[in-house]
């Protein structure tokens, strides 16, 4: 298998966001040397279940994935590709493979701010967010989000409408329109920026995967803006990842400090 196919193999074997693959590959200089030892059954740290799962991911299955992505215009970037953004490499449990619609070549050289927040924005929050996004893009700052209803879409649409490049990270495969009604926005972002997922194109949306997706939203931005979040908001997951990555976090001054949505 090629280098790209080997990265797809290890990713499919353990799962896109599973840190276990990095543990078993620890100490190996390359994916090729790891695979060579695997074929010789020299890797003692693998469990029987892991070996069985890895053997079940055949070369034919991997080639089918590559063919499918090529036919759909989905770019595949592997961890040791030159084009793989350093911002993703620098985090704990980095993605091993990225599936991308659009262009990621300028991520590392750009000032990007990630936006997140509630799905049901107050009128105040939406107005304030649009104003802040507008001010940022005027200075050349790029915008990133997770394309969820509410704060995410507001930031992405505002950036797009102002002609600014922006990025989005999905918590499912690129072939799924999630949330419903987001396909048009995905296509618009891909035209002048990129839509990114570490999940295989046919990976269905699952609640737990969006938590892992949040570490990539935090990684994209040099800072994270939380527009509006309740005490149990998923946006606080992004805040936690951002803190662990040493990123700055910005919050909007709420209109009513006694309102639980803030």
Task: Describe the structure concisely for a colleague.
By secondary structure, this protein is of the alpha/beta class. It has helices at 3-14, 20-24, 31-39, 48-56, 59-72, 86-89, 123-138, 151-161, 183-191, 207-220, 235-244, and strands at 75-78, 97-102, 112-116, 142-145, 166-169, 193-197, 223-226, 248-251. An 8-stranded mixed β-sheet has the order 1-2-6-5-4-3-7-8, sandwiched between helices.
Describe, in plain words, how this protein is organized in 3D:
The protein contains 11 helices and 8 strands. It has an 8-stranded mixed sheet, with helices on both faces. Helix 8 links the parallel strand 4 and strand 5. The N and C termini lie far apart (51 Å).
The order of strands across the largest sheet is 1-2-6-5-4-3-7-8
Class based on secondary structure composition and strand pairing: alpha/beta
Q: What share of residues is helical?
A: 40-55%
Order of helices and strands: HHHHHEHEEHEHEHEHEHE
Describe the global form: elongated
What's the alpha carbon Rg, rounded to whole Å? Answer: 19 Å
What is the arithmetic mean of pLDDT?
Answer: 95
The fraction of residues assigned to DSSP E strands is 5-15%
The number of helices is 11
Described by strand count, sense and barrel closure, the largest sheet is: 8 strands, mixed
Gap between N and C termini: 51 Å
Structure summary, number of beta strands: 8
Point out poorly predicted stretches. Answer: none
Give the SSE layout.
Elements: H1 3-14, H2 20-24, H3 31-39, H4 48-56, H5 59-72, E1 75-78, H6 86-89, E2 97-102, E3 112-116, H7 123-138, E4 142-145, H8 151-161, E5 166-169, H9 183-191, E6 193-197, H10 207-220, E7 223-226, H11 235-244, E8 248-251
Parallel strand pairs: 3-4, 3-7, 4-5, 5-6, 7-8
Antiparallel strand pairs: 1-2, 2-6
